Amino acid sequence: MGLRASCLSLLIVLCGTADSATAQELVAADLQSGLLRLKVDRGLENVRHFVLKDPPRLVLDLYGIRGTSAVLPPATRQGSVAGMRVGRHTGKLRFELDFERTLRPYRLR
Predict the structure, then answer these.
(1) What CA–CA distance (Å, rounded) separates 101 from 42?
(2) Using one digit for the tens of pLDDT, what is the confidence trace for 23-76?
(3) SS (H, E, C) the chain
(4) Structural domains in the chain (count)
(5) Which residues form the domain of 37?
(6) Contact at 8 Å (CB) between 53 and 25?
(7) Residue 26 maps to which CATH number?
(8) pLDDT value at position 16?
(9) Is 4 helix (H, G, I), strand (E, B) or coil?
């Protein structure tokens, strides 16, 4: 297997309903085989994502999330994902995914 096949291409799927009139909550989170799925109970205000190089990681900010009832995925190695942290900040919930190598192209849907 070549290096290309062993590197992770990350797909992030955000699901929610169209109603954004009240505070949103993260209700489900799952990380398996390079696919991070996050489900919110209402529409998101905004999503910001960016890559940091040293160490290689992806930062995903979900604005408008006021809380979480989701059981978060364990912060253990899964494929090329070396670890994951989740933190609450004023007005947003932040996910940071650490990678063993430079992050390959990813999609946010």
Answers:
(1) 34
(2) 688 888 888 776 788 888 877 788 899 999 888 999 999 898 877 877 777 666
(3) CCHHHHCCCCEEEEECCCCCCCCEEEEEEEEECCEEEEEECCCCCEEEEEEEECCEEEEEEEECEEEECCCCCCCCCECCEEEEEEEEECCEEEEEEEECCCCCCCEEC
(4) 1
(5) 3-108
(6) no
(7) 2.60.40
(8) 53
(9) helix
